[in-house]
Amino acid sequence: MSKLKESKSKGKMLFAEDDKFLAEMFRQKFKLEGYTPIIAHTAISAVLALRDEKPLAIILDIVLPDSECWMIMEYLLRKKDWMPVPIIILTNWDNEEYKKKAKELKADAFIVKAGTTPSKLVATMEDLVKKQKQKGVESYHPPTF
């Protein structure tokens, strides 16, 4: 039965969030929308998941127990074999310094948790994935925010 569900998945997405309640809420929404969510509660577990999985998008909380999401993004930028996918920063920290850092590290969106819903997050991710596929990997550049 799990193979049947897997074959109908729209794709995998990585969600790095240390708040287990929020992670579960968003996991359920992405699963309901047909995705296979991969949940990581630490930066290290997110990097390990990226090594083993091929997500079509990545959603990162800035502050994780063992590091900030910047470490994950810097890791991805250094990987020569990395196929760019949309990266969404989902955080409680609404400040210009973090927005600037996210942009420098090629995040595609910066979303404040208090200003979004699970449905809006899914819609944002789907829009970014669609734009990336339309433009192709080589010409894909993150939008401004």
UniProtKB/TrEMBL annotation:
The keyword Phosphoprotein applies. SMART domains: REC (SM00448). The modification 4-aspartylphosphate is found at residue 61. It comes from the Bacteria. Residues 12-128 form the Response regulatory domain. PROSITE patterns: RESPONSE_REGULATORY. GO terms for biological process: phosphorelay signal transduction system. InterPro entries: Bact_response_regulator (IPR050595), CheY-like_superfamily (IPR011006), Sig_transdc_resp-reg_receiver (IPR001789). Gene3D superfamilies: 3.40.50.2300. Keywords: Phosphoprotein, Two-component regulatory system. It holds the Pfam family Response_reg. PANTHER family: PROTEIN PILG (PTHR44591:SF14), STRESS RESPONSE REGULATOR PROTEIN 1 (PTHR44591). This is Response regulatory domain-containing protein.
